Amino acid sequence: MPTPSPAADRIELMQTFVHIVEAGSLSAAALQMGATQPTVSRRLQALERSLGVRLLRRSTHAMKLTEDGERCYERARELIADWHAFEADLRGVGDEPEGTLRVVAPHALGQLLLVGPLADYLRAYPRVAVEWLLNDRRPDFIAEGVDCAIQVGELTDTMAVAIKLSEVPRVVVAAPSVLAGRAPPAHASALAELPWLALRTFYRSEVVLTHRPTGEIARVPIRPRMSTDSLYALQSAARMGLGACVGSAWLVNEDIAAGRLVQLVPQWHVAPLPVYLIYPPSRFQPARLRRFIETMRLALADPAGRAWEAGAS
Questions:
Q1: Domain HTH lysR-type spans what residues (predicted)?
Q2: How much is the pTM?
């Protein structure tokens, strides 16, 4: 059997080590990799000999990273990601994107508004396939093999590279039945008297509004009858008259036009939510990721906000 080159061998050893840590045991890592446990154990020992440090402490029932092992694990993940991106970059030397792009996007945006730009991207680059994964949490890029994610709201990961794509306009709405027997609220403070729905990802017990003409700020306490992490569930509950809510304009504009929902206190402004495309730091970006970033920036970077009307058209 030919002996691998030292560089290729070290990459393989580091990949094995990362698999061991993330799988939680040598046997689980061997199963994931389609290898035997003795092979995985030999690779771990070879990496420890090569580095001259102990990476794991193992007993019959437990496995724990040493201090050196913790540092090695974090660095190995970065190096492996850089190596994969470097390989992909070389394979795409003609700058023709190819391969599989794994993207995480929020449920509502990913089901409706972003599918159009995604379709444009796939038509433009026929040698690329996309895994379009919809959830509202930030992924573990390395462990889950995710290339990039689209995130709504303020950033919490200071290590990721973030590109601001746009902002989501938001409005306060309710079904006409919520206002039955009530005068429409004239001041934001009157919203506290209404039954409420909360989108717990962004607001739970308070809504902050700014009066456009004067700049006055109102902090409105609310006691939600229902809280959800789903924008679609929030929209459905609002349509059914369960309470007022702060909804994304692109999703509720059609309901407002059809009379299913009414915009409340239109002179009061709810701060829009930023939309970012985030990805792990790397010196190399495959062409498929670069072109995807360009496509999303062009699709959503609309200073007049027209891109966010697409969901209501």
A1: 9-66
A2: 0.70
